[in-house]
Design a protein that fits this description.
Pfam families: GTP-bdg_M, GTP-bdg_N, MMR_HSR1. Keywords: Coiled coil, Cytoplasm, GTP-binding, Magnesium, Metal-binding, Nucleotide-binding. Its main location: cytoplasm. This is GTPase HflX. Belongs to the TRAFAC class OBG-HflX-like GTPase superfamily. HflX GTPase family. By secondary structure, this protein is an alpha/beta fold. The protein folds into three domains: 103 residues, GTPase HflX, N-terminal domain (Rossmann fold); 64 residues, no CATH class; 174 residues, P-loop containing nucleotide triphosphate hydrolases (Rossmann fold, 3-Layer(aba) Sandwich), CATH 3.40.50. It has 14 helices and ten strands. The protein has a six-stranded mixed β-sheet, with helices on both faces. α1 runs parallel beside α4, α4 runs antiparallel to α5 and α5 runs antiparallel to α8. Bound molecules: guanosine-5'-triphosphate and magnesium ion. The site of magnesium ion has 4 residues, from α9. Magnesium ion (MG) binds next to α9.
C-alpha cells in the first residue's frame, strides 16, 4: 500500500450560502478526496463577502492554511470551488511545494483511477486535457513538476504532451475525440441491434445504490462499493420477465454537484445509454441529508439529456436505514415514488412489476401503431 497523501480541504461560505450547505459540500469533498487516495487532516471553512480574484480566499487565510499544511506535513490542498488557472498559479506561488487542486481536479483523479474500458479511459484523458488547457499559460514549472510527479491528479495524460503548448494539447484533444467517435459509432450500432427491446436507464447521484439495485433486479454482479464513482463504465444487464422475454437495464456513472459542463459533455455518450431508454429509474439515497439537492442536480442533468416524454420512476433506496420521519416526509411529498432497499431486498418485487407493466404498455403501444 502506498502511503496516503495528506490533504487539507477548503470550503467557502459566501453571503448567499448557508453554512450547513457548505459543510455538507465539504463532507462530500472529504469522501471524494479519500476515494482519490488522500488522507484529510483538516478542513477550513472561510466566510467571504466576495471571492478574491487572485487567490479565491483572502491572503490571511492563505497564511493560516500554509501553517496548517506545515503542521500536518500535508502536501495537498483541495478547494471545493473551481479555481481559475491564475488562481492555481497564485496559490502555488504562496504555498511553495504544495499541490493545489479543486473539486473538478479531484473528480478527474478518481475518474482516471476508475476508468476500465478503452472508451472511458479516452473520455477521462479528453477531460483531463481540457481541464489543463486554461491552467497552462505560465505553468511551465507547474507542468514539469506534474510530469515528473506521482500521486493524486498526476496520473493520466502522458507526459510528452504536457511539456509542450496549448496548441499541441488542443490537437491531441481532437485526435482523442476522433478515436472516441469511432468507439461511439460501434456503440450506436450495438444500440440499434437492441431496438425493440424495452430499455431502462438507471440514473442518480453517485453512491445512491444504482449498481446494487441493478444486481438485485438482474441477479448479476456489477461492481458495488461504498465510494463515490465506483461505476464509470456503463454496463447492460438482462432482467427476465417471463415467457422467455427480457428487458435491459443499463447502469451508468453517477452524478455529483458542481460537475463542470465539459465533463458532462465528455461523458454524454455513457449517459447516452439513458437517453435511448424507454424508461428512467431515478435512484435516490433516502438517507442522504441533502437528498433534495441530489434530486435537483439529477433533474437538471436529465433535462439536458432525456426527452421529457420518457417515463421516469422515482425510487428511494436504502429505505431500511432511513428514519421514520424521513420516510414520512418522502411518502407525503412523493406519493408516486417507490421506497425500496436494494441491499435488503425490500420493495424490489413491486419495482420489478412496475417495470414489467411499463414494458407491456410500451409493447402494445408499438403494436397498435
Ligand atoms: N443501507 C443500504 N445500503 C445500500 C443499499 N443499496 C446500496 N447500498 C450501499 O451503498 C453503497 C453504494 O452502492 P452502489 O450500488 O455502488 O452505488 P452506485 O449508485 O452504483 O454508486 P456509484 O457507481 O459510485 O455512483 C454500497 O456500500 C452499497 O452497499 C440499501 O438498500 N441499503
Ligand atoms: Mg455504481
Amino acid at each position: 500500500m502506498p502511503e496516503l497523501e495528506k490533504a487539507i480541504l477548503v470550503g467557502i461560505v459566501t453571503p448567499r450560502m448557508r453554512k450547513s450547505t457548505v459543510e455538507e459540500h465539504l463532507a462530500e469533498l472529504k469522501r471524494l478526496a479519500e476515494t482519490a487516495g488522500a488522507l484529510v487532516t483538516r478542513s477550513f471553512l472561510q466566510r467571504v463577502q466576495a471571492f478574491n480574484p487572485a487567490t479565491l480566499i483572502g491572503e490571511g487565510k492563505v497564511h493560516e492554511i500554509k501553517a496548517a499544511l506545515a503542521e500536518d506535513s500535508a502536501g495537498l490542498v483541495i478547494f471545493d470551488d473551481d479555481l481559475s488557472g491564475s488562481q492555481v498559479r497564485n496559490l502555488e506561488e504562496r504555498l511553495p511545494g504544495i499541490k493545489v487542486l479543486d473539486r473538478t481536479g479531484i473528480i478527474l483523479a478518481i475518474f482516471a483511477k476508475h476508468a476500465v474500458t478503452a472508451e472511458s479511459r479516452l473520455m477521462v484523458e479528453v477531460a483531463q486535457l481540457q481541464y489543463l488547457v486554461p491552467r497552462l499559460s505560465h505553468a511551465w514549472t507547474h507542468l514539469s513538476r506534474q510530469a515528473g510527479g506521482k500521486g493524486i491528479g498526476m496520473n493520466g495524460p502522458g507526459e510528452t504532451q504536457l511539456e509542450t503548448d496549448r496548441r499541441i494539447i488542443r490537437r491531441k484533444i481532437q485526435e482523442l475525440k476522433a478515436k472516441l467517435e469511432k468507439i461511439e459509432g460501434a456503440r450506436e450500432r450495438q444500440a440499434e441491434r437492441r431496438q425493440g427491446i424495452f430499455q431502462v436507464g438507471i440514473v442518480g447521484y453517485t453512491n445512491a445504490g444504482k449498481s446494487t439495485l441493478t444486481n438485485r433486479l438482474t441477479n448479476s454482479n456489477v461492481y458495488v462499493k461504498d465510494q463515490l464513482f465506483a461505476t464509470l463504465d456503463s454496463t447492460i444487464r438482462k432482467l427476465y420477465i417471463g415467457d422467455g422475454k427480457f428487458i435491459l437495464l443499463s447502469d451508468t456513472v453517477g452524478f455529483i454537484r458542481k460537475l463542470p459542463p465539459h465533463l458532462l459533455d465528455t461523458f454524454k455518450s455513457t449517459l447516452g445509454a439513458a437517453s435511448n431508454a424507454d424508461c428512467i429509474l431515478n435512484v435516490v439515497d433516502a438517507t442522504a441529508p441533502d437528498y433534495l439537492e441530489h434530486l435537483e442536480i439529477t433533474h437538471k442533468i436529465l433535462e439536458d439529456l432525456i426527452a421529457p416524454e420518457i417515463p421516469r420512476i422515482l425510487v428511494f433506496n436504502k429505505a431500511e436505514t432511513a428514519t421514520p420521519e424521513r420516510l414520512e416526509e418522502l411518502r407525503t411529498h412523493y406519493p408516486e415514488a417507490l421506497l425500496v432497499s436494494a441491499k435488503e431486498n425490500i420493495g424490489m418485487e413491486r419495482l420489478k412489476q412496475t417495470l414489467i407493466q411499463l414494458e407491456m404498455k410500451n409493447h402494445s403501444a408499438k403494436q397498435n401503431g
